[in-house]
Design brief:
14 strands, 327 residues, 5-stranded mixed β-sheet, protein phosphatase, 4-stranded antiparallel β-sheet, 18% strand, Prot-tyrosine_phosphatase-like, EC 3.1.3.48, hydrolase, 2 domains, protein tyrosine phosphatase activity
């Protein structure tokens, strides 16, 4: 039992342990804990002799905030579960047993027990108080929770959007527009068509966007922080532009590889907005990246309820009773 004390065990019935590289040299402790599976989360040359008795899985990542560890969560969760299902113990380690290994253990606990990041982190810190995932990994864990810890991360829209945002940030850092094939046109991925209003070209009335494609920024956030319950459009009423996700009608312009430019209505070719991959400042002072905007002076906002009333079949009243009354 004294040997087992040398390993940091996650509280509970699971034979799940966390540690650093040095943990692998505690052979008696590993044997006492019945370790059968070892998950290594680090990028460095490994002495294979250390792992010869165990089933071994390696995730090669550095302890950097911009590393993508999120894409590995399904595989690491499966590996941990496989070891536990086999009746043995599982050791998850990185170099120091502080950030990378902790992130994978937290992800497993979230997936296994359907708990949030804070609860899982608290459990792991009971076993190893020095645990401190870096800020980038913490954000990935938060997103993993928002995605409801899916078995398939890479085909999840939230993950694809996150990867797209990372590409935009990378392009911005080097002063270039993103590669055409990496631009995510949001209306090609969203199946939920519910929206409270449309944005139409003021000149020809062509619909250009709906409310679910608006990018929330400081005006809306500040209203919510103050306890308000305002929509994005209402909270941003003083802003001169609507900021949007890239939409498919913008494709001919956005795929040209330019850092910035104008957006024209695809029907009447009237100038309706502008874009800047490096970002632009809204009239409310918030900096939006990327900046893809429609000018309110060239756009009409039309409530969807109004649209449905306009499209209602002749003879059918708003409450739907007229037709029945005429029978």
């Amino acid at each position: 039992m004294e040997a087992m004390a040398l390993l940091d065990k996650v509280p509970g019935d699971l034979k799940l342990y966390i540690g650093g590289m040095f943990t692998l040299r505690r052979r008696d402790a590993l044997k006492e804990a019945s370790i059968t599976h070892v998950l290594s989360v680090l990028r460095m040359p490994l002495d294979e002799e250390l792992f010869s008795p165990f089933k071994h899985h390696v995730v090669e990542v550095d302890d950097l905030e911009d590393e993508n560890l999120l894409e590995h969560f399904p595989a690491t969760c499966r590996f941990i579960q496989e070891g536990l299902d086999g009746g043995g113990g599982v050791l998850v380690h990185c170099a120091m047993g502080k950030s990378r290994s902790a992130t994978c253990v937290i992800a497993y606990l979230m997936h296994k027990h359907h708990i949030n990041v804070s609860e899982a982190l608290s459990q792991v810190r009971q076993a190893r108080p020095i645990v401190e995932p870096n800020e980038g990994f913490m954000k990935q864990l938060e997103l993993y929770g928002q995605m409801q810890t899916p078995e398939d991360v890479e085909n999840t829209p939230a993950y694809q959007r996150w990867v797209y945002q990372r590409e935009i940030e990378l392009s911005r850092a080097v002063g270039q527009a993103p590669e055409a094939e990496k631009i995510r046109f949001e209306d090609e991925h969203v199946t939920d068509q519910s929206a409270s209003f449309e944005l139409r070209c003021r000149k020809c009335r062509r619909p250009l966007a709906t409310s679910q494609y608006l990018v929330d920024h400081s005006a809306a956030k500040s209203a919510n922080d103050q306890g308000g319950n305002l929509s994005t459009a209402t909270a941003g009423r003083d802003c001169a532009h609507y900021f949007l996700d890239p939409l498919s009608w913008m494709r001919p312009e956005l795929e040209q590889g330019k850092l910035d430019g104008r957006l024209e209505c695809p029907k009447c070719h009237n100038n309706v907005g502008k874009y800047a991959w490096q970002g632009m400042q809204c009239s409310c002072s918030e900096w939006i990246v990327p900046g893809i905007s429609l000018a309110k002076s060239r756009i009409d906002q039309v409530n969807k309820t109004t649209v449905s009333e306009i499209r209602r079949p002749p003879g059918l009243a708003a409450n739907g009773n007229s037709a029945r009354q005429n029978l």
